[in-house]
Amino acid sequence: TLHRAMGTRLEFSTAFHPQTDGQSERTIQYLEDILRAVVLDRSLTWESALPLVELTYNNSYHSTIKMVPFEALYGRKVRTPLYWDEIGERTIMGPEFIHRAAETVEAIRKHIRLAQERQKVYADRKRDEHEYAVGDHVFLKVSPMKGVIRFGKKGKLKPRYIGPFEILARVGNLAYRLALPPSLSGVHDVFHVSMLWRYVHNPDHVVDFGELQVERDLTYEEVPVAILDQKVHQLRNRAVSLVKVLWSRHDETEATWEKEAELWRRYPNFDTGTPVPDLQRDSDRPEFLNRRELIDEAVTALNTLKLYVGKYDKNFIQLPETDKKILPSTLQAPELEMKSLPSHLKYVYLGDDRTLPVIVSSKLKPDQEAALIDVLRNYKRAIGWTIADLRGISPSVCMHRILLEEDAKPSREAQRRLNPPMMEVVKNEIIKLLDVGVIYPISDSRWVSPTQVVPKKSGVTVVGTHEGELVPTRVQTGWRVCIDYRKLNVMTRKDHFPLPFIDQMLERLAGYSYYCFLDGYSGYFQIPIAPEDQEKTTFTCPFGTFAYRRMPFGLCNAPATFQRCMVSIFSEYVGNIIEVFMDDFSVYGASFNSGLENLALILKRCIETNLVLNWEKCHFMVEQGIVLGHIVSKRGIEVDKSKVDIITALPYPASVREVRSFLGHAGFYRRFIKDFSKVAAPLCSLLQKDVEF
């Protein structure tokens, strides 16, 4: 090999072992210092200054080898204009050259050995030998992440240890393998001896690590535990409310003063753990000293209000308190409505007693169906049967942000009146979203949008009137609670993330033997909103004022955020085993085994990112399916016959609006109609300006 021919070897460096590449790190730092000095002095770029740095380094005297690197490598001094032809210089050849080279190499080795011994003496003065045996218990040192941990300087300089952990094996001379708990399964289990500290058994002292969320780089984030004190700092033009915060894994001596507004913004779910106070008994507590006047005013106003509207108290609208919470399907199997299926589909069950149903192809062989059920059971967490199964996609994967224009002005709109049936719809929706944590009550916000209820309709169909006339309509199937974010959307900077071309996606999707058509469960509600933008989603209704933790419908940039999130999650699979269009995912395979392997990869990725699929809209291992109004199968792309029947049954358009609607429906299938532009030209001419209809 090249290394053997040159007499060299390749050394690998590992994490937490700087001894393996210390010389390289020191050389790089030295070269960087020289390079920075040359660039600043001569106003050069880093690339143009590299030859000067190389010449400087190779011709600088090194105390370790007692000569310059160029002379050590070539056996002579570098020929510069000042030293081009020294008087009396003669060329050395033959055995004398070899003898002098051997002496030089031996001298260099001797000097390096002496320098190493000298540095070792310096290092050994404060060296403490640590050696552990298999079965010993040690603490593991964890380095807090700078800028994330919220505590004072004293806390930052204080070492942190978790454990103890048992030593399973010794790896080399300076590393050990530890038995880590399942909560640290994402961290490698081999550590350098410098990160360990011997554990001396003391039954009265136990270090708790169960609640510590350690990242892959062995860092963790501090969270607030309690508020110990409160004060108001008076500035020249305003007053700032401060709170003394006790942080996790710190005692009261390390508590820090933080801005109250900033604390609640960063930790909106922070619970102080204190019960509702008794004002008469606890009015002298620190947290009430600076608010006594405000509390007195509030109590007086409340008593005055009750004098005037006491007889109307019973008519105030309140949300009912219920103990019946929606539980995840893994804890309590839900009662589901089983709809009738076409002949090529059937239900199978992933749970006991015919619970947790999914929809699969009825044409599978018994062994194929068994293999499919095994995969679905192994990745059951990727499927949701109730809204309580939504865990929320990790903010590190994607997060919705609401960026406003520079001249944006906040808008607070009043709530709108609702009739009794609509009131019941809103109440049920609010209770459901509160139970699963999608929304939370908020008392004050600069942005407030009204709530409205709109009919939930199916696709376009044709119905007959009493006079026997056929008219196109969309049948109402229920009600949907929406938030009118139009004023917020006007002030929002638009996100122009593109959607894929439907025709290109269908062409890539067609021609395969097996498909799995997947759908996200309330896809928008799985994407978190940035904490600083949650107040902008505030909405008002007769039951109070609430804000969203997850992305709601109605935001102008919500589709772009969702498509970007899905592409980010399945980035390495899109175009190879899956096609993504919003919350519709199509997994395909040329054979049953390849399709099953692809499905397992997608379900695994869903679990890793907390993406949950809708059991009712997922069809597994079918031979064909409807994708965006087209039938996709091994035969290719076909027209959905039901859509064609609806279009052919539409009445003749009688207005410009109806002409535009008809062309929109027919143009969706223009790829199947030869010379569509020529055929539709007479109708398109009716849409032109100043043309009589």
Automatic annotation (TrEMBL):
Signal peptide start-end: none
One Gene Ontology term of the molecular function aspect: nucleic acid binding
Domain Integrase catalytic span(s) in chain numbering: 1-77
Pfam families tied to this protein: RVT_1, SH3_Tf2-1
Ranges annotated as spanning the membrane: none
SUPFAM superfamilies per UniProt: DNA/RNA polymerases (SSF56672), Ribonuclease H-like (SSF53098)
Gene Ontology BP, a term: DNA integration
Protein name: Uncharacterized mitochondrial protein AtMg00860
